[in-house]
Amino acid sequence: MSKPRILSTSVLAQTRLFQIQGIDLAFSNGRTATFESVRMQGDGVVMVAAINAQDELVLIREYAACQDRYEVGFVKGKIDPGETPEISADRELKEEIGFGARCIQKVRKISYSPAYTNLETHLYVATDLYPEQAEGDEIEPLEQMNWPVADIDSLLDHPEVSDVRVIMLLLELQKTALKDTAKYR
Amino acid sequence: MSKPRILSTSVLAQTRLFQIQGIDLAFSNGRTATFESVRMQGDGVVMVAAINAQDELVLIREYAACQDRYEVGFVKGKIDPGETPEISADRELKEEIGFGARCIQKVRKISYSPAYTNLETHLYVATDLYPEQAEGDEIEPLEQMNWPVADIDSLLDHPEVSDVRVIMLLLELQKTALKDTAKYR
Q1: Which fold has domain A45-179?
Q2: ipTM of predicted assembly, 2 dp
């Protein structure tokens, strides 16, 4: 079974943030199909689990417009043109929670539904924090919440925690804590 | 800080699968902003980690059009009109790997970037499998791979495993195996 051949692509819709693309494919068995994919402009997104000196996660609570409710999660944001993901992670920490980090460790880069989207997020854990505020583009001040790393189980049950990237990072932190407490501290 | 008020919504683009919506918001501090959100039609998606009698994950390897490469992951698909997520999970198992399941346990419902999307997936673990094939809508036959649950760590390092939902389920299975091997068996 060899990889399908892309016959053509077209832009079905284009807005400020998103593009919907049509992809005409010929499969190796001779069948053809048109797929749709959602593409976000730019170089992707970073999400950063910040852990302070008291071994607490520094969380933010932010309005989630598409679902018209608040969501609790980690610092995150778009990578600006010319930035590496690490520099973006450090900038977002300073803008959203008022801390820089002397240690920013990559966890992994993830996709979401790679058949249908190019959405990618670089996931990090930040430790050895120091106070430094930078001005961001937040419309209203972000509510900050500190949560003990030792109590991740109750955070996983929090009704305002739904983003699979946050849940994956929380499970990864628990796994690391079980296996090797040194890795992210 | 009270929740922003939705002033109006508009359809910026509409294709067969997706809609991009504009949301005009007034925040409690008086500032206004227009957000964009991507909406998928329908009742969401299911993803099912199937575990066979040999304690192996039953995986599929499928072409991921938007990234023009193959991706290894779990059985998944859209919930059809009138289906519950559980019925959809059982149907997708029969269509994609040729097994029904006597036990389908909910792990959780996740979102992805709820500020910008309504994308939601119901995550399940299926056990006590029995052979039953149903006809699906696959364009080419799906390649099937069995992978020992005990060897999830190497699957997490697989270059064709990138979907954060799959990674979250794998970490959840490892956590359950560490805490209580009975829960998903």
Answers
A1: Nucleoside Triphosphate Pyrophosphohydrolase (3.90.79)
A2: 0.95
